[in-house]
Amino acid sequence: MVKVGVLLVAVASRIKLRFITRNQRKEDSDLKLLREFAIIVAIAFGGEFISYYFNLAIPGNVLGMLILFSLLLSGLLKVEQIKNIGKFLLDHLAFFFIPPAVAIISTFDILKGQWIQLTLVVILSTIMVLISTGLTIQFFQKVINRVLNNKEEILENKSDN
Prior knowledge:
The structure is a single chain. The protein is mainly alpha-helical. 83% of the residues lie in helices and 0% in strands. It has two domains: 1-106, no CATH class; 112-161. The protein has helices spanning 2-21, 24-53, 60-74, 83-91, 98-106, 108-111, 115-160. The relative contact order is 0.07.
């Protein structure tokens, strides 16, 4: 819930500033930003609701991302419909790390004796993410190259006939 509140404050402050400093045409784009934000929030709350209502082991925010992905993949939601808010959120991504950082600082007494274990877990998980990301990219590059090579072969065979 804190994340949604932070998002609302960030979007509302940007809209307020833009309303004051720009003309009517820009106000329309601000309303578009708010509409895009409403779409994202509705999907996020939908994921939270599904996770809570059906008592699923999958967190609501992960379900929300899966819903967003499937809507984009199916074409029911176009990238253009959420492009501006996506850019805005990515531009202000560092802002969203403040609540977790405050939570870590506030639980410092609990974590006091476990810094070595936590550091080890962070380092190992980072290495695992880097390796799995690299392997995934290599896999998809091979798949894409095979598909492109097959298309070239098919085109060459058609042109020979």
